[in-house]
Design a protein that fits this description.
With 466 residues, the protein is mainly alpha-helical. The protein starts with 8 loop residues before the first helix and ends with a helix.
Length: 466
C-alpha cells in the first residue's frame, strides 16, 4: 500500500454517517409513520412507490451525467455532495412533519407524495457523487477493498444510530400514551427527523471539507442522454449486478423495514427492537472485517458467496428461533450472523461497482464512474420498492390496523412474521444463484481488465510528459 494512502479516507467515510441517517429514517421508519401516524391508505402507498421509482429511473442516471460533466474549483464530486445533503436534510424534515393537514385527507396524501419523490431526488444529488469517488482514489483492487470497507464502516455507524436510538428517542420526544406507556407520535417523528437532518449536513460538511479529490479522470467528451442509456444497455455486467444486488438488498430492507412492525405487533414490546438492532450493529461492524481478511486467502467471488450464505443461514435461524423455540435471545444471536453476512455483502458490492467501471471503460472505450454509480442508488430504491410493495400489500391483505398495535388480529401478526423471517432469506437465495451463474468479473478475466487499464494509464502519462 502506498505511503499516506489512508490519509483523508477516514474523513471521506464520515460523510456516509449522515447519508445513512437519512437512509435509515426513510427506509426503516417512513412506512410505519405513514401507516400509523398519517393513516394514509395502503392502496395509495402501493401506487406512489412504483411511480417514484419510474421517475428515479430517469433522474438517477441524469444526475450521474451531470456529475460526470461537473468541473469546479471544489472538484467534480464535493460540490454535489454538499448541495445534495443540504437539500435532502430539508426534505427529510418536512417529510416527517405534518404542517397541519387533516390526518388521512387528500391534501396530506398530495403533500406526502411530493416530498416522497423529492426525497429520492435530493438523496440522489448527494449519494451518487459520494460513492462515485471510490474508483477515483485507486485502481488497486486491494486498496479499493480498504476504501469501501472504511466507507461501509461509517455507513454502518449511521445505520446503527438509527436502528438503535430511534426506538428509544421516538417515545422520549413524543407526548402520546398507550397502555400506560409513551409511544411514538407525530411530534416524536418530526423532532427526531430534524435532529437527523442537522446531523446529515454536519457530517457531509466535514467530509467535503477534509477530503481531497485526486486522480479524477475527466471525460474526454460530453456525456449525452443517448450515451447514458448506451452505457446502461451495453454494460452487461452492470445489468446483472443490478439484478442480484437489488434482490439481496430488498431482502435486507425487508428486515429493517418490517422490524418496527414485528416488535410492536408480534412481540408486543417495541423496546425489544433496540436490543435487536444493537446486536445487528455489532454484526455489521464484524462483517466489515470479512472482506479484508478473507480476500487474503481466497477470491472476492467466494467471499461474496460466503457473505450471502451466512446471511441466509442467519435468517433461517431467526425463523426457527422465533417460531420453533419462541426465543428472542436465540433470534438475536442468529441476527448477528445475518448482519455479518449483510455488512460484508455491501462492502463487496461497492467494490464490484468499481470493477464494473473498469470493465465498461475497456469495453466501451470511455469511463463513466458517476453514471454507473448512479445505478447503485437506483437499485437501492428499486430494492426498497420491492420491500414496500410486499409490506403494504401484506398489511392490506392481513387487515393490519395501526391504531391497535399488539392488539392486531392474528392474520396481521402472521403476515408480519412471514415478511420479517421468511421472505428475506428467499430473496437473498435467488440473488446468490444469479451472482454465481452470471457475474463474470473475477479471476483471470478481471486481472486482464486491470492490466489493460494500467497499461493505458501509463501510455497516457508518457504522452502527457512528451
Amino acid at each position: 500500500m502506498k505511503k499516506g494512502f489512508l490519509k483523508g479516507k477516514f474523513s471521506y467515510g464520515i460523510g456516509a454517517i449522515g447519508l445513512d441517517l437519512s437512509y435509515g429514517m426513510f427506509y426503516s421508519y417512513l412506512a410505519k409513520y405513514m401507516t400509523d401516524i398519517l393513516q394514509l391508505k395502503n392502496s395509495f402507498l402501493l401506487l406512489i412507490t412504483p411511480l417514484a421509482r419510474i421517475w428515479d429511473g430517469i433522474n438517477d442516471p441524469m444526475m450521474g451525467t451531470i456529475v460526470d460533466n461537473t468541473n469546479t474549483k471544489m472538484g467534480k464530486y464535493r460540490p454535489w455532495i454538499l448541495i445534495g445533503s443540504c437539500c435532502n436534510a430539508v426534505v427529510l424534515s418536512l417529510l416527517f412533519t405534518n404542517p397541519g393537514f387533516e390526518i388521512g385527507g387528500i391534501p396530506l396524501h398530495i403533500y406526502t407524495a411530493v416530498l416522497y419523490i423529492f426525497w429520492g431526488m435530493t438523496n440522489t444529488m448527494a449519494d451518487i457523487p459520494y460513492w462515485s469517488m471510490v474508483p477515483s482514489f485507486t485502481n488497486d483492487p486491494n486498496e479499493r477493498n480498504i476504501i469501501a470497507t472504511i466507507a461501509r464502516a461509517f455507513s454502518g455507524l449511521g445505520q446503527g444510530i438509527i436502528s438503535i436510538l430511534t426506538p428509544i428517542m421516538l417515545p422520549i420526544l413524543s407526548d402520546t400514551m398507550y397502555g400506560g406507556e409513551k409511544i411514538a407520535d407525530a411530534r416524536g417523528y418530526s423532532l427526531w427527523a430534524i435532529i437527523c437532518a442537522v446531523a446529515l449536513v454536519g457530517f457531509s460538511s466535514i467530509s467535503v471539507a477534509r477530503t481531497k479529490e485526486k486522480h479524477v479522470i475527466k471525460p474526454k467528451e460530453k456525456f449525452t442522454f443517448k450515451k447514458m442509456f448506451q452505457i446502461a444497455k451495453s454494460n452487461d455486467q452492470l445489468l446483472i449486478f443490478m439484478l442480484f444486488a437489488m434482490l439481496s438488498n430488498a431482502g435486507w430492507y425487508m428486515v429493517s423495514g418490517v422490524a418496527v412492525y414485528f416488535f410492536d405487533v408480534v412481540a408486543g414490546d417495541p423496546s425489544k427492537q433496540s436490543s435487536f438492532s444493537t446486536i445487528g450493529a455489532v454484526g455489521s461492524v464484524l462483517g466489515l472485517l470479512v472482506v479484508p481478511i478473507m480476500t487474503k486467502y481466497t477470491t472476492r467471488r467466494r467471499t461474496y458467496q460466503f457473505s450471502l450464505s451466512m446471511a441466509i443461514l442467519g435468517f433461517v435461524g431467526m425463523l426457527i428461533s422465533a417460531k420453533g423455540f419462541n426465543s428472542y435471545m436465540a433470534m438475536n444471536f442468529c441476527y448477528l450472523a445475518a448482519s455479518i453476512g449483510i455488512a460484508s455483502m455491501f462492502v463487496s458490492q461497492t467494490v464490484f461497482l468499481a470493477d464494473i467501471v473498469d470493465y465498461g471503460e475497456v469495453k466501451l472505450g470511455f469511463r463513466s464512474e458517476s453514471i454507473i454509480f448512479s445505478m447503485k442508488g437506483f437499485l437501492q430504491k428499486m430494492a426498497y420498492t420491492i420491500q414496500t410493495v410486499i409490506l403494504f400489500a401484506g398489511l392490506e391483505i392481513s387487515h393490519y390496523n395501526g391504531n391497535l398495535h399488539h392488539d392486531n388480529p392474528e392474520s396481521a401478526k402472521s403476515a408480519i412474521s412471514v415478511m420479517m423471517l421468511v421472505i428475506p432469506a428467499v430473496l437473498i437465495f435467488i440473488s446468490l444463484i444469479i451472482f454465481s451463474t452470471k457475474f463474470k468479473l473475477h479471476g483471470k478475466y478481471m486481472e486482464d481488465i486491470t492490466a489493460q487499464l494500467n497499461s493505458k494509464n501509463k501510455e497516457t502519462v508518457v504522452q502527457n510528459e512528451t
